[in-house]
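Researcher: We're reviewing a set of sequences before deciding which ones to prioritize for further study. For each one, I'd like a predicted 3D structure that I can look through quickly. This is UPF0251 protein LY60_01030. If possible, include the structure in token form so it fits the rest of the review sheet.
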Amino acid sequence: MPRPRKWRKVCCLPDSNRFGPLDVPIEGDFFVTMTVDEYETIRLIDMEGLSQEECAGQMKVARTTVQGIYSEARKKLAESLVNGKVLRIEGGDYKLCDGDGEICVDCRCPRRSYNGLL
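Model: Here's the predicted structure for UPF0251 protein LY60_01030, in token form for your review sheet.
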């Protein structure tokens, strides 16, 4: 029996959950789905400038887990850009930070609430 997946702490959801070319359908092979936790690794590492180790601490998972999530997220970004596919952000094993308590001490995201887009 496999180990249960550990929830990844996510500080905020994206303002938009769909990106890409405007002239293609968003069904079938014309889209790539990135999970919310993959989005969070891109945000923390590439936007906030955190190391993978710091990102792992923020998300409350192992560094090797972050490394795998980040690698998958970058592949999906590249597929969207190179092949002209729509990138959708949805799903994944995450727990949204509520802005209170110990879990949110290191939050750097100004948007901590659900905005109805996902």
